[in-house]
Amino acid sequence: MGGRGRPLKGSGRRGHGRRAGAAAGAVGGFAPGRGCRLKMSTILETSELPAVFDGVKLAAVAAVLYVIVRCLNLKSPTAPPELIYQDSALARFLLKSCPLLTKEYIPPLIWGKSGHIQTALYGKMGRVRSPHPYGLRKYLTMPDGATATFDLFEPRSEHCTGEDVTMVICPGIANHSEKQYIRTFVDYAQKNGYRCAVLNHLGALPNIELTSPRMFTYGCTWEFGAMVNYIKKTYPQTQLVVVGFSLGGNIVCKYLGESQANQERVLCCVSVCQGYSALRAQFVIQQSEDTFYESGSKELYYTIDNAVEQQVFSPFLESPIRAQETFMQWDHCRRFYNFLMADNMKKIILSHRQVLFGDNNMKKPQSLSDADLGKLYTATSLMQIDDNVMRNSDVAEAGDNNDNLLCFRKFHGYSSLKEYYEKESCLQYLHRIYVPLLLVNAADDPLVHESLLSIPRALSEKRENVMHVLPLHGGHLGFFEGSVLFPEPLTWMDKLVVQYANAICHWEKTKPHCSDTEQAVSGQE
């Protein structure tokens, strides 16, 4: 009975504590309702902060994705290459015989639409799983004492026409037959029944010493011509397909246009990723006739000597501002590529400095002095190297009949950088080529400015033997193919060149029949 009236343990203390707490809150001036409002506002503020951070993260991710999409050019569509040509029997035959001309070029999905990545992979890696074709190295002594070399690869199967056909190939700047993209193409051409002769640019092979104070230039055709003459003499029955890559495209076109005799026994010519005009590709900065690179004023030279050239290439000359976007500009990182190529050229020149700059056992060329060597070390562009080393004249003393010096003056003795680029470019020779000519460029080539593409476009619109092929993607000598990430060993470029050559070989065999058919059709009309 008495136990029922006893309070529960601790109940009095809890009640007292609540009252004491309320009293303390009152004494301190804090009402219970105000404390709740403060706690609620604190909770709301802390809940908004994570939302702000999440928004920043989302914006950062969106920005990164946008940059990736823009850099990789993922929104760019895939399409067949743009073709510029005149309607003719040859063009119609090529469109039927070369499916790659009208078929969609599909680069690797993730990175293949970026011209920079395609170019970088070509420059660094060359090709994927490149084969190693077996060839014989040939040595030819030039009139000036230089030793030209080329590698000869025999066909590994019969040609589709049963004929003897040889591809004479000129690689890109400072390249040779041991480069992976050359090996891949040669192996594919061999399998299709072509004999291949690949020029090694003078001074490009690290294990071949120069034997005269001269190395390759943009447009020197002596070594290539010597190789072609050797092939013609050694294989009297063979016909030639001329192929040039990048700088090699300039050399082969210049060689064919220099003389009509150079086009004898030539079935066709293919040029891939060349710039057509070194003068327009380089940005010439002039202060006076003798001083370059020291003035803020910039002047670009335009000269067309031949009236035919002026008519053909007038669309290019109508807009001077387009030509100012040059190899010395930073747009599309061309200045950076220029620096890398100049650095590679410096390494090659310095590896042969004993021959080029003279030593105790060889007469030192007057133009290549210690001052020129110092300028070479500090050069950051191809223009500076060309002006200080490649085009410099060597003034021989009166009565000096040294053949080496005479030849050296002939190829390097230009009065100005402008003259050097004019004389070394194929621009003034393109209209003299009469064999079928395929000019291939990529619209996203970071080394060839889009204004230079007006040259092959204008030529293709006026000459029936010329076709210009311009895919959207491919970079500079990239043209990789693949599904998503990994490229295939064989590129679109390799397939196109061989497919075009096959079509021309068939055209040469069926050309009389095609002509008779066309005449009969036109007579019926």
TrEMBL record:
Keywords: Cell membrane, Glycoprotein, Hydrolase, Lipid degradation, Lipid metabolism, Membrane, Serine esterase, Signal-anchor, Transmembrane, Transmembrane helix
Group of enzyme by EC: hydrolase
Location (main, coarse): membrane
EC code: 3.1.1.23, 3.1.1.6, 3.1.1.79
Gene Ontology molecular function: any one: monoacylglycerol lipase activity
Pfam families, alphabetized: Abhydrolase_1
Reaction(s) catalysed (UniProt annotation): a triacylglycerol + H2O = a diacylglycerol + a fatty acid + H(+); hexadecanoate ester + H2O = an aliphatic alcohol + hexadecanoate + H(+); 2-(5Z,8Z,11Z,14Z-eicosatetraenoyl)-glycerol + H2O = glycerol + (5Z,8Z,11Z,14Z)-eicosatetraenoate + H(+); an acetyl ester + H2O = an aliphatic alcohol + acetate + H(+)
Region (Disordered): 1-23
Subcellular location: Cell membrane
Protein family according to the UniProt entry: Belongs to the AB hydrolase superfamily. AB hydrolase 4 family.
Matches recorded under PANTHER family: ABHYDROLASE DOMAIN-CONTAINING PROTEIN, MONOACYLGLYCEROL LIPASE ABHD2
Protein name (database record): Monoacylglycerol lipase ABHD2
